[in-house]
Amino acid sequence: MLYKFKSKSTGDVIMLQPNGQRVLEIIGKDTQAGTGIILPDQMPAAIAALEAAIAQEETDRAAAVADAQARKEPPPHFEAVSLRQRALPFIEMLRRCQKDGHEVVWGV
Fold first, then answer.
1. In terms of CB atoms within 10 Å, which of 20, 42, 48, 64 comes out highest?
2. Closest by alpha carbon to 4, among 96, 108, 85, 106?
3. By C-alpha distance, which of 99, 84, 98, 107 is closest to 29?
4. Residue 54: which H helix or E strand, with range?
5. Is residue 82 classed as helix, strand or coil in its secondary structure?
6. Is 75 a residue whose pLDDT tops 90?
7. What's the rounded Cα separation, in Å, for the pair 6 and 45?
8. pLDDT in tens, 17-47
């Protein structure tokens, strides 16, 4: 399944199911319904939640690398694509929609 996020302010943002679900869970949206909406007044909190999750992932990765170096082990392997790379187009969509006063919808 794909998540296709749509708005009047931007082009569509398309994510594979696991990535779309992760983003929606981070911002506190129901992933079981298959459809949803993010209103402009919800966007600042959604952006902040995504940025906090990105910062946490980067902190965790840096700590894991530092720990491996301290134990003189090879660094751990991470997903090839970070949350920052996956979520940035969606965050930009939210910022533009917030500025323009348009909602973001999916599954419709």
1. 20
2. 106
3. 107
4. helix 43-70
5. coil
6. no
7. 19
8. 999 999 999 999 998 888 999 999 999 999 9
